[in-house]
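@channel sequence for tomorrow's demo:
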Amino acid sequence: MNGLTGATGRAVKPLAALFVLVAALITGPAAAQNLSVDINQGVSRPLPIAIPDFTTQQNVETPAGTTSSLGKRVAEVITNDLKSSGLFRPIDTLAFTTNVAYPDVLSPQFASWRTVAAQALVTGFAEAQSDGSVTIGCYLYDVFSEEVLVREGFNTPVRNWRRAAHKCADAVYSRLTGEAGYFDSRIVYISETGRATNRIKRLAIMDQDGANHRFLTNGQNLVLTPRFAPNQQTVAYLSYAQNRPRIYMYDVNTGQQRLVGNFPNMSFAPRFSPDGRTLAFSQSRGGNTDVYVMDVNGGNVRRLTNAPGIDTAPSFSPDGRRIAFESDRGGSQQIYVMNADGSGQRRISFGDGRYGTPVWSPRGDLIAMTKIGGGKFRIGVMRPDGSGERLLTDSWQDEGPTWSPNGRVIMFFRSRRGGGADLHSIDLTGINERRIPTPLEGSDPAWSPLLQ
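structure tokens (generated this afternoon):
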């Protein structure tokens, strides 16, 4: 890559089918002590960070535009990713006093960046390759110590340039916070339109920032509660095809759908185990609704609960050993936890009001939930033993939480008075909330693991 790959001295190795890592993550013990972001508390002063347009050595036309225009768009995606986290304050490009030329990627003019009060600098390049792919280089510098903190590059088909930008943002986020990133991920959700008495609900998928949106189903059948498999390419969901509520699988790559477990009774609320081999769900039989599990091919069905009332919304712990679920067996809607074989069932929610939609954090330390009381639906978290309950939102009707891959952000949907719903996210501090753009109204979001 015209001298820039020599920064690490490592050979090219595969990262995934679409991406090749062309330079390894660089960290230094001295740099580790200089620049970092504490994400365990609310950030009153986000880190000032400069992200100029990525440069190019030779402006070449590609199917996605010139490499110069690609460099500009890559920087915009990284800027929006980092800004959306609430931890970084990208400096307005109008304040920049220097233009980044190709040699500046390896040798930034640090004095110029200090004049705009930047503490960190993200810079890089976009370069077309002879095979039709594009290489996106990504560098993070500590402006004051003048040390390189991240040095990565991704070779990818041009159509996937946004993923390379998200991966760069993830690398910057990870290096400065010490936590894994979450930007290179997707959201599946229910897109809604039409009158309240005749809602059309379609399965839809998009990048976590709302880009690359597409519909997966045509709206002829009502669909609800989509959930990603760990492989990120399969979605389980509830469909009312032929007016029978049953669980289906959707293959994101092929568009193929298949019925899972053709039960005579209503089956709903599917969710995958962490290894992707098992599906937990609810089924109604004889006026009672209980939690079941089955193999993802629909076989080996086992009943886990057998209490009077409604047991539903199962969610596996990240180690697969326990399941959180909601139940009204005690007279009101509450959260319970049990072992993955159904033993050891116990209630963990004891605050005022009702609790529902429990979802275990990927980190295993918290369970997100919807708390219902005082005329409101609010998003909150609690520890797996029920302690440390904390509400993050205070709107009229927020529900349906889903976790980012790193367990630091929760997405949910917010219903509006008078009708309609939108997707929102909030971090664990309860401070950084934002609306997620969708073409139509949206509900029931589910966040994918990091893409591979």
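heads up for whoever presents: The CA atoms of residues 222 and 240 lie 5 Å apart.
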